[in-house]
Specification:
- There is one protein chain.
- By secondary structure, the protein is mostly helical.
- About 80% of the residues lie in helices and about 5% in strands.
- The strands form two sheets. A two-stranded antiparallel sheet has the order 1-2.
- The protein starts with a helix and ends with a helix.
Length: about 220
């Protein structure tokens, strides 16, 4: 899975629109699996917490709130990626997207990246709180498994962000160049024609050039 994500970053030009449709489906499925797995993990960790001090109660509540936030954000992330895939399909033309839809799709992709980054930040924040609590209770040895899980989630999520972000480069290469053929009220070809006309207007007439050369020869 990680190798597939990485291929979208390193071999963007080799990808097709169908490859990105498959990527969007895979991203949504992975998000849903993470939601289920992390939801179970949060529930178990909350139920196994011990201690009845006020500070402990506050930390438990904070961990619960952060855990719920992570689950909700990841659900939103899966929904946004799914919706983004639908919008790309609506704008699809042949093996790319319509040039007029490039800007809108890139903006929607950025929204997906922001939500995904927010979920990752909240997830890391919850882990830091959990790590601090374990250190206060002298239970750092119990954090080995959560640390491994954190590393795996970070790896998957970061590669996910990079793979999704590669869509901007791909769509600009396949459809973005077409969208730049029209600039203002003139097409790019009309602008070239006008530029050539301006260059001709700046050049002196040929008969003036001939008279000037003859005058120089006479003066010599």
């Amino acid at each position: 899975m990680c190798r597939r994500y990485l291929s979208f970053v390193t071999h963007t030009t080799d990808k097709t629109l169908e490859d990105y449709f498959a990527l969007f489906r895979r991203l949504a499925m992975v998000d849903l699996l993470l939601v289920v797995a992390y939801g179970v993990l949060v529930g178990i960790s909350i139920s196994l917490m011990v201690g009845d001090a006020d500070e402990d109660s506050f930390v438990r509540m904070l961990l619960l709130v952060l855990g719920v936030c992570v689950v909700v954000i990841w659900l939103c992330d899966a929904a946004l990626v799914t919706h983004f895939g639908f919008r790309v399909r609506e704008a699809a033309t042949s093996d790319s997207v319509h040039p007029d839809n490039v800007k809108d799709l890139i903006q929607r992709k950025r929204l997906c990246l922001v939500v995904s980054s927010l979920g990752l930040a909240v997830y890391v924040a919850r882990f830091c709180v959990e790590l601090w609590q374990a250190r206060e209770q002298g239970l750092l040895e119990t954090m080995s498994l959560p640390t491994v899980i954190l590393a795996l989630v970070l790896l998957v999520k970061v590669l996910r962000l990079l793979a999704l972000n590669s869509f901007s480069n791909w769509v600009r290469m396949t459809a973005g160049t077409s969208s730049e053929k029209t600039i203002g009220p003139f097409t790019i070809f009309e602008r070239r024609k006008k530029r050539k006309g301006a260059e001709k207007a700046l050049c002196p007439p040929s008969f003036l050039t001939g008279d000037l050369l003859r005058a120089l020869r006479t003066s010599d």
